[in-house]
Amino acid sequence: AAGLRNVRxxxxxxxxxxxxxxxxxxxxxxxxxxxxxxxxxxxxxxIFGLAVVLFEFPSGYLADRVGYRRSLLVGTTLLMAGWxxxxxxxxxxxxxxxxxxLGAASAFxxxxxxxxxxxxxxxxxxxxxxxxxxxxxxxxxxSAEAMSAAAGGWLYAAGPRWPFWLQxxxxxxxxxxxxxxxxxxxxxxxxxxxxxxxAIHVIGFTLWHHRRLRAAMALSVALGLSTFVVIWLIxxxxxxxxxxxxxxxxxxxxAHVWLAGVSLASxxxxxxxxxxxSLLVCCLLVPLGYAGLSASHTAWGIAFYxxxxxxxGLQGPILATVIQQDAPPEDRASVLSxxxxxxxxxxxxxxxxxxxxxxxAGMETALGVLAVLLxxxxxxxxxxxxxxxxx
Length: 391
Prior knowledge:
Blueprint: H1 2-17, H2 26-34, H3 38-66, H4 68-88, H5 92-109, H6 112-123, H7 130-158, H8 162-165, H9 167-180, H10 195-209, H11 211-240, H12 248-295, H13 305-326, H14 332-361, H15 363-388
Helix pairs in contact: 1-6, 1-7, 1-9, 3-4, 3-5, 3-14, 4-5, 4-6, 4-9, 6-14, 7-12, 7-13, 11-12, 11-13, 11-14, 11-15, 12-13, 12-15, 14-15
């Protein structure tokens, strides 16, 4: 009973966590209110990613040792603090401080929430339903983001800081929901090693000794980076295509409704096409999406953004299941944190050069280059994944 109660609370937690009023206008806020260039914006996201990188594995390891619920409580407390800093930020470095706090918050919550979902389902005898529940939770979170995004553009028009002020009570509600969770039974051991030795062992086991985990994480990073980069380009892309700012929230909401639907269908798609077939479709959508955006010179080009929403909705639940199946039970959050750390580190490395490419070569040229580069990386990672796994 406690396991299923946790599953329901984690679903609510995901919805609250993804109430993000600033998301559809955040790039415009940085450009028009703070005065940042696209290079600055990518640097800002690299700072956020670096904060996640620094905190991600330590927070995941700590969650495995002291409890997933406690990790979520720390994360939601930091979440509230980060949004409070955002409400007052007036400069690049003030916003960077807020992003650093939010990055630490993300690190403490990521991994711990999915690990708690797995062990909660396992304690209820329903571990085999993980892909379905992961898809449902992602669908609920994207629906919440869609609804809040629909209001975000209107709030920004009413006052540029309003979307950020409303994030504070939302974070407080997330903290309350995390407090209502119960710690599920889980393995507790360091295998006779010190914590430092255990942490080094987990990293080595995941990235060097376990071929399937390594390949799954490589594909997760490749697809995650492909879909994350375009998030920061799509708002200036829409602006350049003459789409009114007032429409940004509604279009963002529609995209995330699509993403929610794909997430809900992910288990059925994987059942119909198989895991390799579903992931190959995701890899092929990367060059299609970027090339379509690059070649379109009207507002209708925004339709190609749905390629990336489809990738996110499919690959997330499928690869999370693959990784959870191979993760050692006593190090589940640590392994999930390594996957997130690698993704964030990839953006720390790639984000600023991509921003500079857009500023210097123009949006269309940059999108064309990304179609080739990220498409190639995705197919290479899929090749390694398909060789490591048998389904």
